[in-house]
Amino acid sequence: MRTTSFAKVAALCGLLALSGCASKITQPDKYSGFLNNYSDLKETTSATGKPVLRWVDPSFDQSKYDSIVWNPITYYPVPKPSTQVGQKVLDKILNYTNTEMKEAIAQRKPLVTTAGPRSLIFRGPLPV
Hints:
This protein is an alpha/beta fold and 128 residues long. It has one domain (2-127). It contains two helices and seven strands. The chain has helices at residues 2-19, 87-106, and strands spanning 42-45, 51-54, 67-70, 74-76, 111-112, 119-122, 125-127. A three-stranded parallel beta sheet has the order 5-3-6. The chain has a two-stranded antiparallel sheet with strand order 1-2. A two-stranded parallel sheet has the order 4-7. Strand 1 and strand 2 (51-54) form a beta hairpin. The longest helix is centred in the last third of the chain and has 20 residues, at 87-106. The radius of gyration is 15 Å and the shape is globular. The protein starts with a helix and ends with a strand.
């Protein structure tokens, strides 16, 4: 059960990072640049049934990790406030995303501030 839950959170993080709010697969000319290499992304289906791109390291074994170093999610690229979406709204969206993701991840593995030999380091973007 714990393995399945952690895998779901890991998949959700990947989906969040890659899918944004789109209902179709992002085309290469629209990639944000957050990843160094997009060539290994594979098309799959999200929990809501929408097509998304993701990559999972074939050698990933969650049993090798006993904690997660949480790095807050950041916008990538950094959005510019406008008359339609102000800075206050952007801040609220980012704060909400960080709170919800951090709580979900903390239910699976302990969060730590310093990486140990068996720590997984989380770093995720909120695509704009």
